[in-house]
Design brief:
By secondary structure, the chain is an alpha/beta fold. Helix content is 46%, strand content 14%. The chain contains seven helices and six strands; from the N terminus they run αβαβαββαβαβαα. It has a six-stranded mixed sheet, with helices on both faces. The chain is globular and about 55 Å long. The structure holds zinc ion (ZN). The site of zinc ion has 4 residues, from loops.
Amino acid sequence: MIDFLKKIINIIKNLFEKRDNNDLIITEKIESKNEFKSNMKILIDNGHGVNTLGKRSPYSASGAMPAIPFFEYKWNREIAEKVVEKLIELGYDAELIVNEIEDIPLEIRAIRVNNMCDILGKDNVILISIHSNACGDGSKWEKGAGWEAYTSIGNTKSDKLAEVFYKKAKEFFSDRKIRYDWSDGDCDKEASFYIIKHTKCPAILTENFFYDNIDDVQFILSDEGREKIIKLHVDSIIEYLNS
Ligand SMILES: [Zn+2]
């Protein structure tokens, strides 16, 4: 009970601290807005944190399983940073919503995004949350494989963003599995992930292959895999902004 109360107090404390930080960032960005090629604010989320339990490839010290250490928080951050770096280099207004190495609660991530939506207008912001997938409990290598993207439930502007990503993913990963959910007529999978459900702007969550599949994890840890995933995000975002 005391732990629970401490957690709530921390969330509230964090919330106010982050609001102050965000206001500063927003003021700076509005002043330099006309330097960018597009008015759209591109927010990139990097799932989880160094303190998140699990979210890593199966690992056995005994050597019974091939040990390919993969930590999702770390990989997400590396990819997210490069996507932001590249977009800025190309003249777009991109920013990470989580600069911390620790996990930031989803409620606070959503507040950071929604603060930006309130100031700039929700149609002038997009959010892409970068993740890697898993289908087991981390005790062994699994067979689930492939790339997929999620949008919030219902037909929203996020669908259009996801469609561009799927189109590019098919081009970039023609020799790998792309996972579809055609049940509602869209190619994107739909789910109630907090970060895409509770943010006001068009938002998608990309699951970039499976870290508990040997072939997939080797691919996403390779230079070729990383470069393709970074380029997929950068090219898809730019195509969406120009469409
Ligand atoms: Zn994740």
